[in-house]
Amino acid sequence: MKRDFLAETDFSKKEIIETFKLARKLKKKVKKGEKHHLLRGKVLGMIFQKPSNRTRVSFEVGMYQLGGHAIYLGPAEIGLGTRESVADVARVLARFTNGIMARVFGHDLVEGLAQWAPVPVINGLSDLLHPCQILGDLLTIIEHKGTFEGVRIAYVGDGNNIVNSFINVAGILPLDLRVACPKGYEPNAEILAAARAKAVSKIEVMRDPVEAVNGADVIYTDTWASMGQEAEAEARRKVFKRYQVNSKLLEHAARDYIFMHCLPAHRGEEVTDEVMDGPHSVVFDEAENRLHIQKAIMVKLMA
Ligand code: CP
Ligand code: NVA
């Protein structure tokens, strides 16, 4: 039966660990220039309702490196659910491709694609979740900290798709996760309750960014206004002002902390230049790991 990757919870703990291992193996092959055509002749259809740099390029390059091909379908092309129904788009694309990656607004759209497409569907970001990002981020944490277990992660800012994905993973892998966000901007309550019910990790949601960052090994932030929330950007800048990740806040972090951001960053808003470009920042390693983790995910689903 075909498998999808719409949410972190689509993979078991064992499968997530295997994905990290495969990603590291494939990364080594890329660095050594060794061929690894595990998806030779296969095609990935990529639907984008929103803009992208990392997701588009890493999936496209990833398919090329795996001996396959990727087709970019931008916001003006498919008209997912408008020009054509989600069910029809899914069934048509599945006749041409071996897998579909979709970046969408409503999470129900990736679920609809997965329901109707007889090929694997991968979530390349929805308003609710960004699972490829978070698995790649954990790979980056493993590379820099040796493990994710016992590593204290502080997320400061909006309770958005990135945080929801972190929380989902915390229901599967043992993480030490603290989220600091303003009132009214908390992560998804159902996702939080489900992850806490699994009792795998310590997950704390608080208001105070200093409390969250205190002694943390990983400091993570993301934009205050996600794609689709552009009209709220001005109002959000006011609400989130004290959640900026800057040198002063980072005085409270562990001495050898790493700074992470899924990017794109809004320099001067959620993070300062000094932090982004400082010695603790691993944001470009993090961006690169999107390639390696997604290749592993595609091999698991499409090989
Ligand atoms: N982090 C991330 O998904 O980047 P893009 O929006 O550029 O794809
Ligand atoms: N929360 C951001 C993540 C971008 C990769 C957004 O959804 O726009």
What's the gist of this structure?
With 303 residues, the protein is of the alpha/beta class. It is built from twelve helices and nine strands. The protein folds into two domains: 8-130 and 290-302, Rossmann fold, CATH 3.40.50.1370; 133-286, Aspartate/ornithine carbamoyltransferase (Rossmann fold).
Instruction: Estimate what percentage of residues fall within beta strands.
Output: 5-15%
Query: Into which percent range does the helicity of residues fall?
Result: 40-55%
> Quick one: overall form?
globular
Radius of gyration: 19 Å
User: Based on the structure given, which CATH architecture of the largest domain is correct?
Assistant: 3-Layer(aba) Sandwich
How far apart are the first and last residues' alpha carbons, in Å?
A: 13 Å
Q: What is the CATH third-level topology name of the largest domain?
A: Rossmann fold
Name of the level-1 CATH class of the largest domain? Alpha Beta
Instruction: Provide the list of bound ligands, each named once.
Output: phosphoric acid mono(formamide)ester, norvaline
Query: What structural category characterises the helix and strand content?
Result: alpha/beta
- Biggest sheet: strand arrangement: 7-6-5-8-9
- Catalogue the unreliable spans: none
Could you name the CATH homologous superfamily of the largest domain? Answer: Aspartate/ornithine carbamoyltransferase
Mean pLDDT: 98
The SSE order reads HEHEHEHEHEHEHEHEHHEHH
Query: Into how many domains do the coordinates divide?
Result: 2
Number of strands: 9
Count of runs of 4 or more consecutive helical residues: 12
